[in-house]
Automatic annotation (TrEMBL), chain A:
Protein's name in the database: Branched-chain amino acid ABC transporter permease
Taxonomy, superkingdom: Bacteria
Signal peptide bounds: none
Pfam families in the cross-refs: BPD_transp_2
From TrEMBL, chain B:
Signal peptide stretch: 1-23
Protein's UniProt name: ABC transporter permease
Record bears the keyword Cytoplasm: no
CDD domains: PBP1_SBP-like (cd06327)
Keywords: Amino-acid transport, Signal, Transport
Transmembrane annotation, as ranges: none
A family per Pfam: Peripla_BP_6
Biological source species: Thioclava marina
Family of the protein in this entry: Belongs to the leucine-binding protein family.
Amino acid sequence: MDPMIRLILAQGMLGLNNGVFYAMLSLGLAVIFGLLNVVNFAHGALYMLGAFLALILYSNLGPWLGIDALHIGFWPALVLAPLMVAAFGMLIERFLLRRLYKLDPIYSLLLTFGITLVLQGVFINFFNASGTPYPGMPDSLKGVVNLGFMMFPKYRLFVIVFSIIVCFGTWFIIERTHIGARLRAGTENPELVKAFGINVPLMVMLTFGFGTGLAGLAGVLAAPIYSVSPLMGANLIIVIFAVVVIGGMGSILGAVVTGFSLGLIEGITKVFYAPASNTVIFLLMVIVLLVRPQGLFGKHG
Amino acid sequence: MKKAITASVSALAISLGAGAAMAQDAISDGVVKIGVLGDMSGVYSTGFSGKGAVDAVKMAVRDFGGTVLGKPIEVISADHQNKADVGSATARQWIDQDHVDMIADLTNSAVALAVQQLASEKHTLTFATGAATSALTGKECTNYGIHYGYDTHALPVGTATAVVKNGGDSWYFITADYAFGHALQDNTASVVETLGGSVVGSSDVPLATTDFSSYLLQAQSSGAKVIGLANAGQDTVNAIKQAHEFGIVEGGQQLAGMLVLISDVKSLGTDVAKGLQFTSGWYWNQDDASRKWKEEYEKFSGGEAPTFPHAADYSLTMAYLKAIEAAGTDDPDKVRAELGKMKIDDFFAKGGTIRPDGLLEHDMYLLKVKDGGTDPWDVADVVRTIPGNEAYASLADGGCPLVNN
């Protein structure tokens, strides 16, 4: 195979691998913004929380309980950590965010930004700032697969496949099922939906929990690839917001498709001019905002 | 907090008492204060700085007897977070308000260059150990800055020479994108090119990157025989791990870590790191005196084995205190003059001298990772001892303006 094509394919695979995290995180943001009209700045911190919960379940919980042999591994963490993050998210919604719905959206943005700073501060205090490797990668996902053009770690391949399923599953639930229809209706016209006997506040709380749970899930998936560090979310959240803006605020499909394709574009840029890969996303954001301010998939301006 | 208050109250009491006793004191403020300014939480906090470095300095103070010229010795420490501005602000406060007499460690070249400059303006001695850039005693040398342990000139002399002589004559660099990485890459490239090798490309990577995969692929597609890692600490560990994950070593390319510590090898595991050659300023298993010191250190710090920057931190503290004793004062100019006259001859440096440009010239060691021994820290063999005058640039070639003028 031509070495150039091989390099493009290989960097594309790595880009797709990053795109997974862009897609899953911007999906959660889009669900929350689309249905609640809240710009959740704490999303990166909740992603970080998911990764730390996986780490804590594996490394710290045993010693805390005095059972040194206790390691809650990757598979249980993949279920437990997102549920815990979702529960945390629902607490935030129920006790903090709910008080701000009647005010300007800037208030909920500032609140969630504050939550981010608090969470980061807490984890910097108890864990080191530069990151701890996650030791619990399951044996079944260790090793490499030969893709023909490159050797690719099995685990990363698993992450790509798994998150594509999660992303399109979420899109399907919200856009194509009865539950999704009620959700959308509930945010469009809460009074009317209440009149049908549906508990709108509960629905909103569950939606927020679902969105934050997705962030937690992305965090658990990221733990074995990247070091688990208090600032891992802060580094990512800027890109995620760019993805959401390019895809169209609140558009579910837009978030997913944009997330994956921007990862891909970023990866392939590395082949031609590596230093530009950090800025290419923002360059695209500028262009999209100028040409199509509602975003590529946005419905209204 | 309570401790800090107690310390400052007692320091105040001491200084008041001393002030009453004599107006002109041999020891300024009646206490010799050593500040360990390092990376206490980041990528360089294991192996280079961190608790290990503070322990080494404290152990030296204990072994010296806790006092010098009858005055107490105090050790304080702070985290510069790998940020030059945080490092400078801390150093400024230490010198201006806390009357720190000497600043040690200064891991991270960017921080070290900034603090050395600042401290020199304020006539305060600095001993950089973890920082590697040869600029510290080259074009940015100062009258009060000492570089103790190694530099980017000495590292590739051992490692790169050995690799090129084994046939690794084309290199691709993965470089930490700041003063240190660029200095190390330049110095390594000049060793490679002098021996007839070539450099085919390089990738600059931000400090504390966790995903090296795309840079490694770039290196792989360059076709270079050797991937030179001009980085350190956790960055080097991550790069080597991921090179194995992506089958790059199995694909026939060789990795050359230009700055590797035994703590990195231990965290990689000897099965991954086996055969890796690296240059070090010291290795605990090099002779009896070093083995004995390692045992003492492990007892003092509670288990972790010392790396060479830790040994350097101990050695420099001893040298500094001896120089105060010899000079009969902690006046920085007189202490610096004394340090220039002394021979640094201990378990760490054999026949070492601190040159007028501030560089400690001493022997370096080329190590090769072996199968794990009975001691979990017994990870390498000394392949070659590199004499100090071969490892380091000569005083004339070092480029220090203070010397050439």
